Each structure stands twice: as C-alpha cells, then as structure tokens.
C-alpha cells in the first residue's frame, strides 16, 4: 500500500521531470540569425617594391547591404610566391598559416551596410626577386551572412621595382 506521503514524493519527482525535461533536451544557445548582406572585395594593388623590401597588402571588403552583418567575417590573404608575411598585422590577431603562405584575419559581426573593413598584411619580398617582375596574390572574404559569393575574391599584383643604387 502506498502512503500519501510516498505518493506525494512520487508526484513531485514526476512533475520535476516533466518541467525540467531530460538532460539531453537542455536548451542550447541558438546561433545568431544570418543577415542579408553582400560582402564584396575590392582590388587594391600594393605599391611597387624593391627586392627585399616590405609592402602592405590592403585587403579591402565592403558590405553592399542591405543589412548589417550578424556574423563574423574572415578575410584570407594568399601571398605571392617569393614573399612572406611580416607583422604587425591589422587586426592584430590575424593568424599566419604554418607554411607562411596565407594570413587569416577575422572581423566581428556588425559591419554596417555601405561600410568597409580592411585587413592590413605587411609582406617582405624575397631579395632574389628580379626587378621588373610582377608577382600575384589574392584575397577573399567569407561569412555565413554573404549572399553573393561571385564577388568574394580578387587578385592583386606587386611589381618588383628596380633597386636604387647605393648613395
């Protein structure tokens, strides 16, 4: 025979399970909803640079809208052969790949419509590059918010300048 005290304890236990639910059903924080944004890269060629010199790649990204971004975006700079990254970078938490051929820079959510962001990646040219030569790299942007991937990548060129005679 079940006593009324025991019946009450069982009912409280059942009610707790029904209210709290099983552990696997604990609500998880939902990811931010993506926005309707069109991120586009704009080609900017770095200055002509002498062999052994340093030049900064400006990886320029514009949000063509219509919405402000709701997710972070990553700008990836693929370095030309005959170069290597040389910080400091902007933003300062950019990450260099183990093979030194790629630099990834993450920007937070919130880039407004008709606004831009620029990753700045200084690179050093190999001292053995031939003056007059043109070297090519690229940069791209990625984000869950971007609705138009056709304008997410561009190439850039660096012309290897003549070395100045020693003064």
General description of the model:
This protein is mainly beta. It has a single domain, classed as Immunoglobulin-like. It is built from one helix and nine strands. It has one helix spanning 4-20, and strands at residues 39-42, 54-63, 73-78, 83-85, 95-96, 102-107, 116-125, 134-142, 153-159. The strands form two sheets. It has a five-stranded antiparallel beta sheet with strand order 5-6-3-8-9, with no helix packed on it. The protein has a four-stranded antiparallel beta sheet with strand order 1-2-7-4, with no helix packed on it. A hairpin with a 5-residue loop joins strand 5 and strand 6. It is elongated and about 50 Å long. The model is unreliable at 5-30 (pLDDT under 50).
Under the CATH scheme, which architecture would be assigned? Sandwich
Per CATH, the superfamily is ntegrin, alpha v. Chain A, domain 3
The average pLDDT score comes to 85
Structural class by helix and strand composition: mainly beta
Counted up, domains total 1
Discrete helix count: 1
Q: Would you tell me which CATH topology applies? A: Immunoglobulin-like
* β-sheet strand percentage: 25-35%
Assigned CATH class: Mainly Beta
Number of strands: 9
| Major beta sheet summary | 5 strands, antiparallel
State Rg: 27 Å
Amino-to-carboxy terminus distance: 107 Å
Instruction: Estimate the helix proportion, in percent.
Output: 10-25%
Strand order of the largest sheet: 5-6-3-8-9
Biased composition (Basic and acidic residues): 144-167
Organism: Streptomyces katrae
Keywords: Signal
Region (Disordered): 126-167
């Amino acid at each position: 025979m079940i006593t009324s005290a025991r019946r009450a304890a069982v009912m409280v236990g059942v009610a707790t399970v029904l209210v709290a639910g099983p552990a696997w059903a604990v609500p998880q924080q939902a990811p931010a909803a993506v926005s309707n944004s069109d991120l586009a890269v704009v080609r900017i060629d770095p200055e002509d640079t002498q062999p052994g010199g340093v030049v900064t790649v400006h990886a320029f990204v514009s949000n063509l809208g219509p919405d402000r971004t709701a997710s972070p975006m990553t700008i990836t700079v693929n370095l030309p052969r005959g170069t290597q990254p040389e910080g400091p970078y902007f933003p300062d938490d950019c990450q260099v790949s183990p093979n030194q051929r790629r630099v990834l820079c993450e920007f937070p959510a919130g880039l407004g419509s008709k606004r831009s962001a620029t990753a700045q990646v200084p690179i050093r040219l190999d001292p053995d590059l031939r003056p007059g030569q043109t070297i090519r790299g690229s940069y791209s942007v990625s984000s869950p918010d971007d609705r138009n991937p056709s304008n997410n990548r561009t190439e850039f060129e660096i012309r290897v300048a003549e070395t100045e005679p020693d003064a």
